[in-house]
Amino acid sequence: MTPVSELRGYLGGFDLTDVLQLISQQQKTGTLRVEHDEEWCVLGFENGRFVGLSCSFAGGYLDLGGMLVAGGLLLPRQLQDLRQQELRQGTAVEDLLTGRKIISADRLTELNQVRLYEALAVILRWKSGSYRFTPGRDAGRSPFFNPQPADFVVLEILRQLDEMEVLRQRVGPPEQMFEVLTTFAGGEGLFGDEIDEQYDETERGILAALRRGATVGESIDTTMCGTYRAYRSIAAFIANGLVVPLGIKVELPTGAGGLVTRFQRLPDLLLPLLLILLVAVGIRSFIRPVLPAWRRASPAAGLGITLEPRYRLAVDEQRQAEKLLEYSSPQSK
């Protein structure tokens, strides 16, 4: 096979996984740019390992600053100031974040790995577009990036994509909401200590987000743990009986205002109404016909019926009235 120099192609013709494995096997250094419509992603390689990432997806997806804002580590105003300073001084946002101690270097490295896996999960599903690998020493290496063999990462991503099909069926769409059935993270309540021991900080953070009424997608944003990790954790919560599906949060049309919850399972909504109807019908059609029989019945007659005080008093009054009639009748005389 001819060694890789500059490699170009179109998605849908030569599979992108083959391109990534080729770069890894030949231990190439350079950048791979993948484009699809208005979106693009640039992957940095050094000796066949991922060492950098820069991407632009619709809606600002996987933007580092946007993720930190969604995770509550950064205010929108602070992010704007950082980007302005980046333009003025030429200092990367990552360096500014760690320099101001907004996020630690280790946590930023973990977050960049999540971004890498999420970006690959996106571009590997693209069916149209183009790619170009440019060899060179400038691979866009980031000091907050854990180098990983490209072929290993690609195989792991493909495995996760297959598993996600099953997890989505168990957990539901990103708009799915859940009810948490227990307290956790040091709180008082059932299974509190066991949850602290069984689940790590990220998983407890997902539980906390779900408890606050967050959807699956919102819990992914707040914990910044990645789609696969969040879905797998929530599936485990469901299996262990910690959460149950509640409903789906949907956006109303413009002008309707607010959010509404649409319940997925109709029986869950109708069951309370059916119980109320049964009680109402029972009071009218069952209790009233039976009460007169209770009043005529006598506990002393061996029927074994225990009456409430008000019904027992009615029976006594009826018996006394019958005795008076018996004594006052001509036959008794």
Structural notes for this entry:
This protein is of the alpha+beta class and 333 residues long. The protein has three domains: 7-164, no CATH class; 172-262, Orthogonal Bundle (Arc Repressor Mutant, subunit A), CATH 1.10.10.10; 266-328, no CATH class. It has twelve helices and nine strands. It has helices spanning 16-25, 64-70, 76-89, 93-99, 105-123, 150-171, 192-198, 201-211, 216-223, 227-239, 266-296, 309-328; strands at 7-10, 30-36, 39-46, 49-56, 130-135, 148-149, 176-180, 243-251, 259-262. It has a six-stranded antiparallel beta sheet. Residues 184-190, 254-266 and 293-305 have low confidence and may be disordered.
Query: What's the assembly state of these chains?
Result: single chain
Tally of structural domains: 3
Q: What is the strand content?
A: 15-25%
Biggest sheet layout: 6 strands, antiparallel
Report the structural category. Answer: alpha+beta
Average residue-wise pLDDT = 81
> Alpha-carbon distance between the termini?
128 Å
DSSP summary, beta strand count: 9
Question: What share of residues is helical?
Answer: 40-55%
Give the SSE string.
EHEEEHHHHEEHEHHHHEEHH
Radius of gyration: 34 Å
Shape: elongated
Low-confidence stretches: 184-190, 254-266, 293-305
Spatial ordering of strands, largest sheet: 1-5-2-3-4-6
SS field, number of helical segments = 12
